[in-house]
Amino acid sequence: MTSQVLTAKHATFLNGRTAPRRLRESTGVTAVSSKTTRHQSSSAASHNNNNDTASLPSKQHRTSRRDALAAMTLAPLLLRADESVAAKIIKASTPEARFAGLRADIVKLMKKDSDFGPTMVRLAWHSSGTYDAMSKTGGSGGGTIRFKEELAHGGNAGLDKAIERLEPVKRKHPDVSWADLIAFVGVVSIQEMGGPKVNFSYGRVDEMDPSTSVTPDGRLPDADKGDGPGKKTRKGLRDVFGRMGFGDREIVALSGAHALGRCHADASGYVGPWTGTPLLFNNSYFVLLRGLKWTPNDAAAKLQYQDPSGQLMMLPSDIALLEDRKFKKYVDEYAKDQGVFFADFVRAFEKLETLGTSGLTPLGVAA
Known about the structure:
Oligomer: single chain
Shape: globular
């Protein structure tokens, strides 16, 4: 099909309708249409038959033939140029090229706003974290977190601003679904903040009707089930993550994303960062969780814990990972070996982002 298209363009060039001006000026060639040439030849022949003194072709006729021959000589050069342009167009239309452009725009936003990256990781996680393995509902497949009905859920407080930040990006990349955009921005943010490369697959199809696609509130984990880091909160973690198909190791690995960002009073009611490097994805969350003494912060509006400096915080659900023996062994493991944490996190996060999806295509290395 490409050769047919290029041949058609070539023919159009020879007809003189779309010949590049720069090419015509540099060569002194003016392409003429075959129709004009035929008309001139017919006129010249008629003139010769009716006037014996016109034994030679007219000057205009000779020039037209010369120009046409010159254009035909240049045709292979034009054809090769058109093939190069076509190749670039085809390359630009590949998913790898499209997502590479999307990645560049995401990185620009991260550089403009330091809070953008951590917020986008939270958005991607909450978009996927509604999945229910039993009913096969929820998950990242439909991009439903963009709907006001889902943004109104308690665990999504403040994420309406994240969607607003992505709206110009979505308009610039209309061929990328909202669901793919939200999942992809989480992957890019993790890697750009020093984390591991998380493989990404595309092909999510947006849901269009919130009344039939938004899941009930309460599917995201609670930081406190009313007993601080006690048994209810630990059970709550296992219930929520277990509903999605995750075990204890995956629960702790995914909790390691608390290395990023901070809590805001106007969103969750909690205040402060988990680590001293909230823009770096590493294993510092586990190092600090098990290495520092954490005590209740009596000045906080909600139960949260503080380190001796009073600058860092932990949620009751974070402390629960220390007080539960089965959870704690993974905290210890990840605190000692960042490589193990990265490997486990990648597997868990890739699984998380594909919950509620089907028929996805792995993205190549270009993005």
